[in-house]
Each structure stands twice: as structure tokens, then as C-alpha cells.
Amino acid sequence: MIYSRIVGTGTYLPEKVLTNHDLEAMVDTTDQWIRERTGISKRHIAADGETTCDLAEKASRRAIEAAGKSVSDIDLIVVATTTPDQVFPSTACLLQSRLDIHGPAAFDVQAVCTGFIYAMGVTDSLIKSGSARCALVVGAETFSRILNWQDRTTCVLFGDGAGAVVLEASEEPGIRSTHMHADGAYAGLLQVSGGVSNGYDELREATAFVEMRGAEVFKMAVNTLGRIVDETLAYNDLEKSDIDWLIPHQANIRIIHATARKLRMSMDQVVVTVGEHGNTSSASVPMALDTAVRDGRIKRGETLLMEAFGGGFTWGSVLATY
Ligand code: ACO
Fold first, then answer.
1. N or C: which end of the chain has fewer CB within 10 A?
2. pLDDT, tens digit, for every residue of 5-61?
3. Per-residue pLDDT, 207
4. How far is the CA of 156 from the centre of ligand 1 (A)?
5. d(Cα 315, Cα 172) in Å, to the nearest integer?
6. Are 74 and 10 in contact (CB under 8 A)?
7. Structural domains of the chain, with CATH
8. Whose CA is nearest to atom 35 of ligand 1?
9. How far is the centre of ligand 1, averaged over its atoms, from the C-alpha of 154 (Å)?
10. pTM for the full model?
11. Which atom of ligand 1 is nearest to the CA of 251?
């Protein structure tokens, strides 16, 4: 049996930090409202001219170094992003060129906040089928570019960043299962409605930026993440107590608390970065994973449950032995 094993992780956050107090000067909000409703106190924002690929490259180099690999070992690149540098080539192809890798497949996956989970699912299948042996899987976003900075209901929630993982074929576990779902009927609750083929309306603001019916998304996220946890445990014939670490998508601390309660897990076993990173969409899970690997909390042999929910709606999970 071939497994794909996490052999290295990396993060990159842009230098500029935007605090809740900074936001108080930009929109009608307060530090207290943002912290109480979301758990966020600050987020990182890409500098002018700094792109998703710039962030992805730095996170990738750190993951490759942590894995003890060189760029010549990488035989597949999958980038999850909602905020690509260009319409095409894909950010994965741009990243491949930056890393001076030539030949292996490189492509983007777009599943908004669930993008990294989808990218892990696809990559795991390609490794198990023998199509790749050492893959770079990245979640990278410059969400700040698709925010309406006059809309207090969305602009306080998101941040920029990139997380990367090197997955290698191994006889030792390994990713044990991946679960991917979507229901496009809910597209209207969370979207950027303008785009290449749809066009943008004359007042660009109306369709080029994130629109969200927050309270409805919140309810769906809590219920759906509860179901994906049950599905993942049942598929692997595991009890709640078998999970050592929950590495959730970092959208809102209240959603994270609800999933931890569902798993009857202490918050000491939940990796939480939302306070410092905000919601970085597809970058949030790999950055949280990297944070807890580098600070020594997550150890080899432990069982990790990663999960996410996002626009689409999309949702999914990865169960892995680290
Ligand atoms: N500062 C101050 N007040 C605000 C702000 C703000 N930044 N934003 C909204 N409010 C006000 C609202 O106008 C409303 O006022 P009203 O009662 O006078 O109408 C009040 O606060 C409450 O608004 P709600 O939207 O009901 O607040 P809620 O408790 O639901 O929190 C939030 C809003 C944080 C957006 C929450 O609904 C949430 O986290 N939703 C889910 C987000 C998410 O998980 N997204 C998923 C993935 S993202 C992706 O895929 C891209």
C-alpha cells in the first residue's frame, strides 16, 4: 500500500500587519466587536505589487527545506487559490518557473476556503496511483485584493498568506482518507459575482469583491463541519478520542469552538491561528499545520484531522497520521 506522507511544511505571511485598531480608522467597527464575533485581532496584508505567487514561493521554499528535499525532487505542483496572479497561466505554473522546475504537471485548484483540502485530496490520489512521488501542495491567497474595504461586514474578516506542504510516497501512513464535497446551490450566499466571462458592472465595487450573507454562512458552516467530522471518523472506524489534533479552517473562532465541542476535544488539541492571521481562505489550514509542527506541538505518529468549509459551498476533510 502506498501512502502520501507529509514530510515538510512551510508558511509565509506578508510583512504588513493590519490590526483591528487600524480597521477602526477605516470602517465603522471596533476591536471589541471583531474579537468577540470572530476571534480575530490582526491579519497580514500583501504589499502593493506582492502577489499570490510571491507568497506561495516563499512558503514552498520553506516546506521543501523542512522536508530535506531540493526543488529537483518535486514532480507535481498543485496550488489552491481563489486569488491567482493572472487569468492564466495558473499560479502553479508561475510558481514552477520561479522554483526553476521544468516538466512535471502543475495546476491550480479553486475551491475557495476548502481549496487546500481539495488540493490534498487530488494530490493524494495522484501519489497513490503512482503518477507522482514527491508533490508540492500549496494554499496561497491575496484575499485583500477582492475585499471591499468600505464593507465592514467582510473586510475585517480576511487576510493574506501562504502555506505549503511536501507530500511524498511512502509505505508508512500517511494520509488515511480525504473527503471532498460541494453544493453549488448555495453560490449566492458567499461569492465574488463578477469575473472574466460574467464581466464586471460599471461600478466595479458591486461585483468584483466578496459578498457574504454571514449569519447564513455561519449556520451552514457549523452544521456541515459537524457532518464532515462524523463522516471522516466513520470512514476510518475511529472514535472521537482517537484524534490527537484538529486543524480547522480558520474563519471564525466560534465555528472552531463548535467543531471542537462536536469532537469533545479540549481547545488544547485544536490549532488556532485565526487571531493572528484572520481568514486566509485556502492558506489557513496549511499555515495552521505548519505553525503547530514548527512549535513542536504536533509530533510524528499523531493523528490529525484537517477540515474546511468555504464558498461554493465546498467542504471537506483530510485524516492523516503525521
Ligand atoms: N463591526 C461592527 N458591527 C458589525 C460589523 C463590524 N465589522 N459587521 C457587521 N456588524 C453589525 C451588523 O451590521 C449587525 O448590525 P444590526 O444588528 O444593527 O443589523 C450586527 O453587527 C450583527 O451582524 P451579524 O452578521 O448578525 O453578526 P454575526 O454574529 O453573524 O457575525 C460574521 C458576523 C462574523 C461575519 C459571522 O456571521 C461569520 O463568521 N460568518 C461566517 C463566515 C465564514 O465562515 N465564512 C466561510 C468561509 S469564507 C470563504 O469561503 C471565502
1. N
2. 999 999 999 999 999 999 999 999 999 999 999 999 999 999 999 999 999 999 999
3. 82
4. 9
5. 27
6. no
7. 3-172 (3.40.47.10), 177-321 (3.40.47.10)
8. 214
9. 8
10. 0.97
11. 44
10 Å Cβ neighbour count for 260? Answer: 19
255 within ligand 1 shell (Cβ under 6 A) = yes
Residue 249 bears catalytic tag = yes
Q: How confident is residue 201, by pLDDT bands cut at 50, 70 and 90?
A: confident
**Quick check: 181 and 228 in contact, CB under 8 A?**
yes
C-beta of 45 in contact with ligand 1 (< 6 A): no
As a whole number, mean pLDDT of residues 149-176 equals 97
Write out pLDDT tens, residues 75-114. Answer: 999 999 999 999 999 999 999 999 999 999 999 999 999 9
Q: How far is the CA of 91 from the centre of ligand 1 (A)?
A: 31
Contacts of 304 (CB under 8 A, 6+ apart): 243, 244, 245, 247, 289, 298, 318, 319, 320, 321, 322
Q: Is the pLDDT of residue 206 over 80?
A: no
User: Taking 70 as the threshold, does the pLDDT of residue 205 lie above it?
Assistant: no
Residue keyed to cell 490590526? 19
Q: Cβ of 103: how many Cβ atoms within 10 Å?
A: 7
Average pLDDT, the chain: 97
Stretch (H or E) spanning 12: strand 3-12
Assess contact for 105 and 76: CB atoms under 8 A: yes
Q: How far is the CA of 46 from the centre of ligand 1 (A)?
A: 24
Question: Rounded to an integer, what distance in angstroms lies between the CA atom of residue 116 and that of residue 124?
Answer: 12
Q: What pLDDT, on a 0 to 100 scale, did the predictor assign at position 102?
A: 98
How far apart CA 125 and CA 224 sit, in angstroms, is 24
Whether the bond into 89 is cis, omega within 30 of 0: yes
CA 109 to chain centre: 11
Length of the chain: 322
CA distance 308 to 67: 25
Ligand 1 atom 1 nearest Cα: 29
Q: Which atom of ligand 1 is nearest to the CA of 310?
A: 50
Catalytic residue check, 155: no
